[in-house]
Design a protein that fits this description.
Blueprint (H helix, E strand, L loop, with lengths): L1 E10 L5 H12 L2 E6 L5 E7 L1 H11 L7 E10 L7 E3 L1
Parallel strand pairs: 2-5
Antiparallel strand pairs: 1-3, 1-4, 2-3
Helix pairs in contact: 1-2
């Protein structure tokens, strides 16, 4: 199990990024959360199998159809044993 925290910048709020991220996380069996930040970015934490987490990180580089992603900052963190996936 691995954990990644991502901060996605660009036109990523108001384009269903969080809801789409939650759907992708569910599809991949990923635990964690996603949240809008005051600076206009979206921040998320993903925990799960290596390949599933990396697939979700890769999805963040594109996002949903209306998103315009300009940057994705990815950081490794220690897993916390989360269950479920929350939109905050």
């Amino acid at each position: 199990m691995i954990r990644r925290r991502v901060v996605v910048s660009g036109n990523v709020q108001g384009v269903f990024f969080r809801a789409s991220c939650q759907q992708e996380a569910s599809r991949h069996g990923i635990a964690g959360w996603v949240s809008n930040r005051p600076d206009g970015a979206v921040e998320a934490a993903f925990e799960g199998d290596d390949s599933a987490v990396e697939a979700l990180v890769a999805w963040c580089r594109q996002g949903p159809a209306r998103a315009e992603v300009s940057d994705v900052d990815v950081r490794e963190e220690e897993p916390e044993g989360l269950s479920g996936f929350d939109v905050r």
